[in-house]
Write a structure and sequence with these properties.
The chain is an all-alpha fold and 121 residues long. Helices cover 83% and strands 0% of the residues. It has one domain. The chain has 3 helices and no strands. The radius of gyration is 19 Å and the shape is elongated. The termini are far apart.
């Protein structure tokens, strides 16, 4: 087994993350603006452009961290294994943050609009 190539687990994780990220892109940048839940504009375009590399790099990080953790679990003894697994979880968490970036930004925008709109009684 080559430790530097993506195995089936890492490939599966990568493609699942890409699928989730694409679904979040559609919800965040197509559905929310279509239903006027957020205002389309320059901020939305800049968030979209930022989310492209963050989502792809995030999916890669999740796939790579699952492979890294599998190798660490097989080979490393005791305390060294624990540290490597924590590192793998940190990398995976950062990857998930990159994947969730579009949804996080749209949620912030949605609640900013909701809190600035006066309540009609």
């Amino acid at each position: 087994m080559n430790n530097f190539s993506l195995d089936d687990l890492a490939k599966k994780d990568f493609f699942v993350c890409i699928g989730v990220w694409l679904a979040l892109e559609v919800v965040s940048f197509v559905i929310f603006p279509t239903f006027r839940l957020i205002q389309p504009g320059d901020r939305l375009q800049s968030w979209f452009l930022m989310s492209l590399p963050l989502g792809i790099i995030g999916a890669f990080m999740v796939g790579a961290s699952s492979r890294y953790m599998a190798i660490a679990n097989e080979r490393d003894p005791g305390n060294e294994k624990t540290l490597r697994i924590w590192l793998g979880q940190l990398i995976g968490g950062l990857g998930l943050a990159g994947i969730a970036f579009p949804l996080l930004m749209v949620i912030i925008e949605f609640f900013t609009i909701m809190l600035s709109t006066p309540i009609k009684t």
